[in-house]
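anyone seen this seq b4? input:
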Amino acid sequence: MLNGLDISNETQKLSYNDIKKYNIEFIMLRAGFTDYDNNKTKIKDKNFEYNYTIAKIYKLKVGVYYISRAISLKEANEEINYFLDIIKDKIFEYPVCIQIEDDHNTIIYYPVNQKNIEKEKLFNITLFMINKLKENGYKPMIRTYYDWYINIFKKYNNVKYFIDNAKVEGEYIMSNKENNHLYLKENEEKVEVVLVENCLISKIKNYLKAGYKILKSKIRKN
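predicted toks r here
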């Protein structure tokens, strides 16, 4: 059993305490994402370099992913070039992922998302990005939903998958979000990824705990 962290929020920073607490051996880092604005702005995760450096200092195996919103080959080419520029000159022991999960209700931001384009078109867009990663010497992986895998990507057998929100058996990397854990399977070896809580949620919890302690001390005094 291997333990790892999936850091997918730009407010999250890898720390020695995380590594020690969960006995971390590998990490999946978000390198960047395409924003939900009309220009589909491409954004590098502000803590990517820091988290990568810390992971390497502690000799963790590292994987990486980019969250795509591409709905055309032109957008896919722009995204993949941006992604490649972020990760150039870096070494990854775990796969380099393209996350295809844009089912967000983007009507107020942008009228079309990946969910609403033709399945064959999304398949070809994703295949284009996967092949571009292969051409640059990476071992690519598609991160997506179970139903998207079944209905769109399953026919492509030359790549592994990182399946969210489902228990799935197969010769691809699989995952299941359950009790704040994410399970992966690679080469018949079960890998457990512990999800780090969003920092904002952690802060709120800490504030509530602090407030409770103050209130409790005041009640005792009275």
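The CA atoms of residues 175 and 183 lie 4 Å apart. The chain has six helices and ten strands. kinda curious what u guys think
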